[in-house]
Specification:
The protein is α/β, with parallel strands linked by helices and 393 residues long. It is 23% helix and 27% strand. The chain has one domain: Purple Acid Phosphatase, chain A, domain 2. A hairpin with a 3-residue loop joins strand 8 and strand 9. Helix 7 packs parallel to helix 8. The longest helix is centred in the middle third of the chain and has 15 residues.
């Protein structure tokens, strides 16, 4: 893998640059400050109106102008995306796009209006991963509305559908003159996805995977083998694990490494945690164990400040078209403020460098600040032993 230079540059002709991020949660408070909000009524134990989340945020950051232009929620990220010029933009959309009132009584429900979903077009999102624990917050009616709205916006989807075949189908992004980015998306029950949300041959739902890691790897590898063409970049997006904490289960490690080693994926795009977790580069392929939230309405809600869930990361990964291997990875940090993204401060960048480097070190992966005040990632190979005079050194 080549080392990042920190220079602003378009992707090289023989590489495909992919923008990846974690959870994009556009419901509740964010939906309320956009031009066409849903009814603000909520069905939570303590908060009964989405406007209360706007008020909480304003107590912390000051007045949030309303209505905000659709592009405003992306803030400084739009400038960075214009700079980086990724070939494909992929997010985990953790919000139902619907005005349906058929909510699922699960404690927390996210929805945004179909009209406000045009904000995704403002960021030129190419693919929304839907295999997560909020896409069915408003039942099958909400999922149908979500799929229809994204289709009308020209945005590909993966991980949920009207039946199992559609939920398991890949999103295929053709990159002119370079190849394809093929996205497969799955949810695990460890992220809070109930088993009854699983799509079937007759029911809508998400692409849910269960069982031992080796069985899941084998099934996904078989799917990839059927789909694979020359110059394909395969990304497997997985919603797994808890919202808080840096722990990564042995099952997650086995699944991720199995997808790299047996299925030959270029990247495992893990999400569910509300903050960034460890990264791993293995066999020149990328594993993101937890990307963290990219947008949410959590400002003013206390309790987990030690994890800095207000810091959002854009992962810009370049993959070799001919081999699917990772050529370069740069991480651009932001801070969520006023339901928008601002550049991270120098102090925040220092904190992220230390924390991500600490968490990634056990995976022989290092994270360091580069001259452009972004974060670069590299693989640390184990020291080789040499036999000299009968001894190892």
């Amino acid at each position: 893998m080549t080392e990042p230079s920190g220079r602003d540059a378009a992707p090289a002709p023989e590489t495909i640059r992919v923008f990846l991020c974690g959870d994009v949660m556009l419901g509740r408070g964010i939906d309320q400050v956009l031009p066409h909000p849903c009814d603000p009524r909520l069905h939570e134990d303590y908060v009964k109106s989405a406007l209360d989340y706007v008020e909480l945020a304003e107590r912390q950051c000051g007045t949030i102008p309303r209505p905000r232009p659709l592009a405003a929620i992306w803030g400084a990220a739009l400038t960075e995306l214009d700079r980086a010029r990724p070939d494909a933009r992929i997010i985990n959309l953790e919000t139902s796009i619907t005005r349906s009132e058929a909510y699922v009584p699960k404690g927390i429900n996210y929805r945004m209006s179909p009209e406000n979903a045009a904000c995704l077009g403002a960021a030129r999102i190419d693919c929304c991963v839907l295999a997560n624990n909020h896409v069915l917050d408003y039942g099958h009616a909400g999922l149908r509305d979500t799929l229809a709205t994204l289709r009308d916006l020209g945005i590909a989807t993966a991980g949920a559908g009207h039946d199992l075949e559609e939920a398991r189908a890949p999103a295929i992004l053709d990159i002119a003159g370079k190849g394809r980015v093929v996205v497969l998306a799955y949810a695990c029950e460890t992220s809070g996805v109930p088993s009854y949300w699983a799509a079937s041959t007759v029911d809508a739902g998400v692409s849910l995977v269960a069982g031992a890691a080796e069985d899941r790897v084998a099934g996904i590898a078989e799917t990839i083998a059927r789909l694979r063409r020359p110059r394909d970049i395969f990304i497997v997006s997985i919603h797994w694990g808890s919202n808080w904490g840096y722990g990564i289960s042995e099952e997650e490690i086995a699944l991720a490494r199995g997808l790299v080693e047996q299925a030959g994926v270029s990247a495992v795009h893990g999400h569910s945690s509300h903050h960034a977790k460890a990264l791993e580069i293995t066999r020149d392929r990328l594993i993101l164990y937890g990307c963290g939230d990219f947008l949410n309405d959590y400002e003013g809600i206390g309790g987990e400040e030690e994890f800095r869930g207000d810091l959002a990361l854009a992962y810009l990964a370049d993959f070799e078209c001919s081999t699917g291997t990772l050529a370069r990875l740069e991480i651009v940090p932001f801070q969520i403020r006023g339901f928008s993204l601002e550049p991270a401060t120098a102090a925040d960048l220092d904190w992220l460098e230390r924390r991500l480097d600490r968490e990634s070190a056990p995976f022989r992966t290092r994270v360091a600040r580069n001259p452009a005040n972004r974060l670069s990632v590299s693989r640390v190979e184990p020291a080789k032993t040499e036999r000299t005079g009968g001894a190892l050194r």
